[in-house]
Task: inverse folding
């Protein structure tokens, strides 16, 4: 028969307030939960507030909408007539107008027009074209882009200008857009070289929308000529099996001042 130990006399488990202790534990657990939970909620709130304060990126369609760059009306002090683009060669240049047609194409058949004023105009115009050629490609002859007639564009045989003419082939295409956004496609019909004094490439025509591109050949001894027709006229040209669209053109254009401009402005 076991007896009661002396050490057991001081412990009366029945007298311990277990309910109160459990209540205290529960209250402490709730307080700790509230503290940690509040901290988490507060952190999330700050994160969300930071997120909402940020500028949201604009939602866009998968296909980006390209904003077309407006063509300038002037560049380097010269009027911009349009833009020539070879899409497959990543080439695009503005066409500058540095011409004064009255100065270049003065009718020298009338002695009254052969005066010092006209000679000064011719000289000044040649200087203007030479200056413009150091900045872009330039109109040499023609009325308006993308209209019936022969519009001639010249440029230096340099990488940033018209060296691209050396890479072209008959049948290739390019685009010309005017300052009023009229855009037409041209197809190359002829590529050949001429002497600097040969002005046949400039001859006008009233039947086709034609563009003539000219640069100097290697060594500047000759001129490289690229002839092209607007795609509708090209089909007419091709179906008629024409070999020279200028055959019946008026050959009265060439005069001394034009020849001087052609010879002296494309020297590189």
Result:
């Amino acid at each position: 028969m076991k007896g009661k130990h002396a050490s057991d006399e001081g412990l009366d488990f029945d007298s311990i307030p277990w309910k109160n202790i459990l209540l205290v534990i529960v209250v402490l657990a709730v307080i700790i939960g509230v503290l940690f939970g509040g901290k988490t909620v507060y952190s999330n709130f700050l994160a969300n507030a930071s997120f909402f304060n940020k500028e949201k990126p604009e939602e866009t369609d998968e296909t980006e909408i390209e904003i077309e760059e407006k063509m300038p009306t002037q560049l380097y002090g010269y009027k911009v007539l349009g833009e020539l683009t070879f899409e497959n060669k990543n080439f695009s240049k503005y066409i500058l107008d540095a011409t004064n047609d009255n100065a270049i194409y003065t009718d020298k058949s009338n002695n009254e027009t052969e005066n010092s004023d006209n000679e000064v105009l011719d000289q000044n115009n040649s200087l203007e074209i030479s200056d413009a050629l150091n900045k872009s490609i330039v109109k040499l002859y023609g009325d308006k882009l993308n209209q019936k007639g022969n519009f001639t564009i010249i440029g230096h045989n340099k990488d940033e200008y018209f060296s691209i003419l050396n890479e072209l082939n008959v049948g290739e295409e390019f685009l010309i857009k005017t300052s009023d956004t009229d855009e037409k496609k041209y197809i190359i019909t002829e590529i050949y070289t001429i002497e600097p004094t040969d002005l046949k490439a400039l001859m006008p025509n009233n039947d086709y929308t034609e563009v003539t591109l000219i640069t100097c050949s290697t060594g500047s001894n000759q001129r490289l000529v690229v002839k092209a027709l607007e795609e509708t006229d090209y089909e007419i040209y091709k179906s008629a099996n024409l070999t020279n669209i200028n055959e019946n053109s008026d050959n009265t254009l060439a005069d001394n001042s034009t020849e001087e401009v052609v010879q002296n402005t494309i020297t590189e």
About this structure: The two ends are 129 Å apart (CA to CA). The beta strands are 74-75, 78-86, 91-97, 137-141, 149-154, 173-178, 183-194, 209-216, 223-230.
